[in-house]
Amino acid sequence: MCMPAVRWSTLLLTTLLLAPFLLGILLADTAHAGAPDTPATNIDLFLWSESGEGKLHTWTTGGHGDSETVTIPSGSSLFFALHQPLRTDLPVESYNPNPPEIGFRAYVYVSTQLFTDSHLTLRVRDGTSPTGGTVIASGDTPVSGKLGNPDSDNERRVDLYWEDDFGPDYIFDSGHYVVLELENDDSDDDVTLGLDTGEGGETPSRLITRTNPIRDITVLTEAFNLETSDDDDRQATDRFEPNLPAELARAFFSGTALNAFGAYDVASIRVQVDDPDGEELFDSELAPTDRGDGSGTVEFDDITWNYNDPEQPGAQQTGSGAYTVRVSAVDQQANAYWVELQVEMDEYGVYLWTDERQQSVAVGGSVSYQLTVRNSGDSSDSFDLQPSDTSANWTVEPQSWSSGSLAPGGTETVTFTVSVADSTEMVGRYATVSILATSQNSPTSQKKTFDLETKTVVGAEFMVGLYFEEGTQHVTTTEVDAVAGNWNDFALRVANLGQATDSIDLSATSMLLDWDVEFEYDGDRDSGITINGLPRQGSGDHVANVTVWVRPAEGGDDDTSSIQLKGTSQGNATKTSTATLEVSRTFGLSLNVAGGGSTIYANLQPGGTQTVHLSLYSAVEGDRDVQLDVVDLPSGWSAVYKDGGETVTQVTISEDESMPLDLLVTAGNSATYQEGGYPVVAVAEDLHESTARGRQELTFNIALQDDLFQVTASKYRAALEPGGSYEFTLELHNPLNADDTYQLQAPSVPKGWQVSFPDGNSIPVGASRSGDATVRITASDEVRHGDSEKILVTITSSVTAHRVEKTLTLEVEQGFGGRLTTTLGDLWYVFVLLGLVMAVGAAMYYRSEEWDDEEWEDEDEADDSAHASAAESSGDDWDDWD
């Protein structure tokens, strides 16, 4: 059945009336929000060239490339692109929104040879690479000839108008390039372009775009956490107490800023604070820190407002109320982009402190805590102090206390006493008493309190004992001999004689100048060490066996040194014990690197040999037969001594004789680099008197082969469905002669995608070996068929810090049924609206049929009464329409 033309006209008219509404719904999903709080501004993208590649940047200074002019041959194009891809989406606006809309403006300094002319066409492209891409705006300009290179007289302003279907706004996607193409479309003459002189130079060629490159600013406000004993502890808050002491009245600001052009374009971060009346109190600006992950994000911290600084009265808070904080990211061209937030100075506040939060008390004794309460709010107030409950063995007095009325900043002091029961069972126990200060005048719904925690410990009797063993006797003084120039070891006993587990600090004093003393215990060796967690007597081994190393000086006139060894209890620093080591210096054998040279040798190759020149000296009376040895050699290594070129294992040396020796140390063929090197000890020992012994510690370092590691994969591109995932396998090739661990990261993951590392993001790989790392990439259910995303994965060596970047490409492919379902689901509102349109058209069609019937009835008014009755019925219908 064919619908009459009038019916089609009615349906078409209705459709046209609803078309704008339909189009608005269809385009709603493509809208993008700009950066908050700050309008777009004009940004200069200066042209420069490096190694023949045209680039764009925002620096206002020149000299960044390697040329101030480039030539555009006739019939050719040059491309200038951002020197790094966009770090996030970049929305741009029309340079001039008045019709005809100018998308961009460019200033170029161009010329041809004298007496010739040419013509340039400029195009702005949205490119996924530095050359090419979709043309979104274009313009052109004639070029005149001159003698020499172009200068300021050769400036050409070029307005680039939006291409069809583009403008008045546009968004460059993250990872894309803003590309400016200059085409010399003249067939005869080359064009010379001046560039890279900065905004104050002769030829600052540049592309101007209107945008806000700061796409995100995050701000964290913090204050001191005054209820902890850590003076540097902070807590996140937007509420501050106005009348804290000056040293505590701090507001800390930190956060991040994301710049689409890259972190380099954020020159500074500025923080300003205005009081409730709009008067500026604080203004601070500092250079941020590049996060270093290539995301375009900078970080800032340590911007601190001391709002009660007596040396800066103009920066002090002005009372309770809402204060406005403006945090601005300032780019290279001094444009500021900001976010604003509010912090509150509270009307009521309380602060409670004491000089000593922890004290010790004797059994049956008591200690006093002197507390000071301060009105840190902005209105007069009184405060109640209430100690927490304790067990029956403890008493706190007074049980409660109230201050008088305190003006803002006013203080009052009170003393609380904590007492402990008279029982030895209380030794080592403690009580934590919290004093709660409460504001009387603050609203019940926002009651201001401060909780000060004190700790009272019942002190055990601490005691330390130091002694030497001589047979079955324990003595505190002993006489020993020690060879000059050598380390000599002696046994010392350290006992915990107290009533509780203790840690004991050991130190040595009173030794002669240039005499060295060290302690060794449980693998720790130093001039001062701590024996940790030594049990009390009866609860374990309360005696520690410590080695005391003494190296007498080879010079000086005194041969005897009285060395005081001291042990100090950490439980009670007043409890100490001493022992005396009376050391008489003897001159036996000494083995040293000749000439006082270095004992550390570097860059030894596997299988290589290092020669060490040694000097053996004897202070022992008579001729001595000396055994030469090397201890602690790593497996696979070897060492020999040479005397005059001959291999020796023993030598004979006379009193006061110095003998040169060469020690040849050969590294194992499979030796690998090791942090800190390989320590060995050269030893010379009298065959008939073991106390006459010389030692020289040496360290050999295997050369590190600092080669770049390689990362390979069987494939770098894969397809997956919405909600699916794919695992890439990266093979890590370690070329070093050292074990390495590689750190994997995905620094910037697009929205709707997830990156994980099933094997962990730290992959150990042995020297000269290979290992595998798995990268799993998962797409959300919201990605669409035909979507494609590139994921950057970085791999960093823990040894060399070298970094390799790999790009993994994912393409979304969906079956026909899934695509059809998605499409129908997305367009459900279109079918609903079309149904409404057809319903309206059908209603109008049937109404028109009734109009036709009425016309026929009017023509038959002369018919019989039945027809007259029908006519009356028709008239009633018309009445219904009225």
From TrEMBL:
List the transmembrane segments.
Answer: 827-846
Sequence ranges of Polar residues compositional bias: 377-405, 561-576
The UniProt annotation puts the region (Disordered) at 129-155, 377-407, 557-576, 851-882
| Compositionally biased residues, Acidic residues | 851-863
Instruction: Classify the source by domain of life.
Output: Archaea
The signal peptide here is none
Keywords tagged on the record: Membrane, Transmembrane, Transmembrane helix
UniProt name for this protein? Alpha-galactosidase NEW3 domain-containing protein
Write down the species: Marine Group III euryarchaeote CG-Bathy2
